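Troubleshooting: if your tokenizer reports a length mismatch, compare against these two reference records.
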Amino acid sequence: MSTNQSRTPHPRIGTRQPEPTRTGTRPPALLLDSGGVLILLDGEVLAHHGKRLGLRLDAVTAQHAVALAARDQDLEDEPASGPRPFTHHWAEHAGCSPDAAEALWRTVRHEVDDTVLWSVVNPEAVPFLDALPSRVQRYVVSNADGHAHAELARAGLLDRLDGVLDSCAVGIAKPDPRIFRMAAVALGRPMEQCRYVGDTLDGAPHLLPATVLYDPLGIYPDNSAGYVRIRKLSELLDTLD
């Protein structure tokens, strides 16, 4: 998503009523990515524009190729010439040439708003948020284009959150640790009491608590030293006591 800056200096709070402070050990607060975790990419959009360019591309393949390309970028050893473009990784998994992939993504980025490309509500999102104990704070931290609040409201998720940080609105983008600290401050929590839940590693907070990697396709290796990997959001529920 876009990381353009705007003049809005402060995060906005969601509509979920805060839980009164209790004594004893508090469960960790969750700092959730939006795109790829709560809201998914619409593969139909890529397939539609691909067809216009003569590509035989189905929606599922297009969507999965995005996740696989992001995985490749996360895990590749950077060569001396620099990292390979995302579009080249995507082309390998979508079954097309790098030139065709670059033409497709150039068209999509020019003609399609992020709120249209990322518009499918993860079917796991509402059941997961509703199943979280009310005292578990949940805050979205998203590299977005200034429309994260509206996007989450349309998805029926905003009132299930304690707040949203849109990188465009605050002028700081992941993985800059300051955006995570802003969310922690808004929740009244130290960073060591927060967990970041994302679908890739490139936005994970450096030198901050371990990332929970949401990997529904099972495409990342197990790596208990670097991150905790889950296949379903519901797997988090048993870790929050």
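Reference record two:
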Amino acid sequence: MSKFKKKTSASQEIPTSALPDIIFMLLFFFMVTTVLRETTILVEQNLPRAEQLRKMQKKSLVSYIYIGKPKDPERYGGEPRIQTNDVLITTDDVVQFVEAERTKLSEAERNQITMSLKVDDGAKMGLVSDVQQELREANALKVLYNTPPEAPE
């Protein structure tokens, strides 16, 4: 007889003690890196084409103002409106919007804020001029006019 016995039963179990830690690390990673929702645009956006385009370096300093006819004219009327952060506002509220956007930034970046205007082709220039005047009063002097990227020919 032999002194040594063969081990025939190999353990087939997978250790799962670290599994909850891995799952929570993945959950936190995706929570931090995922953007849940952008602005829901309530106005029409048929942007004009530009001849010269330049990309922004730091998009976190850009706040968007949309100007155009409402997509739901029965609810918001047929005249062009101003939209900021999912809210339709009037020209009197532009200064308040700029101040609210500045408070979101750090102290060093507050003077570098850029206001991006996305204006529909059919919007009246008077409304755009009123918004520009309100931006001057709010001391938001960096204004960017947004256009779609040019399609390759």
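Descriptive notes for reference record two:
- The domain at 65-145 is CATH 3.30.420.270 (Nucleotidyltransferase; domain 5).
- Helices lie at 19-33, 73-76, 94-103, 125-137.
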